[in-house]
């Protein structure tokens, strides 16, 4: 059993190591994670074989380069998924971008030293959740306004609604139902029909209505 003094010393060591890591420049942290990541190690190993695969984990092997144990892709430092958010945040909040929109942030990342796999999607996701942008950026859309009710029909079957129910098990040669509802009386007709991959044409639908309603 460890004594209380030893436990306290271990806790202090862990906290100090964590603080030292936070004090590291971001690119140093990216390099550190890059060296020990299993995915990047697999890419480095694949790069050294005689007949490597063309692509692995979304990375084109031909564009990968191992520089002193650090994986570079297209002359840029490959960023591990676990630290991608920190990289995007630093660039998005830098003096050059100052919480710019998607286009400027993506351009800034493209001009940086980092390569982010699937960066286009990840940048958009990060900006949608940026608290500063959500609080300060103006909304450029008009208010949606109030819902407008549909006018009430003056007589039955003046206005109707239709919908196809598909994906049903076949019964007597039919596998779908055309539902027709009168908007005034709410009277319903359920018309069995056959759904085909190319869909039902407007002419066929009109014939079913004329025949059954």
From TrEMBL:
A Pfam entry, by short name: Integrase_H2C2
Alphabetized GO MF terms: nucleic acid binding
Every Integrase zinc-binding domain range: 84-138
UniProt-recorded name of the protein: Integrase zinc-binding domain-containing protein
Native organism: Endocarpon pusillum (strain Z07020 / HMAS-L-300199)
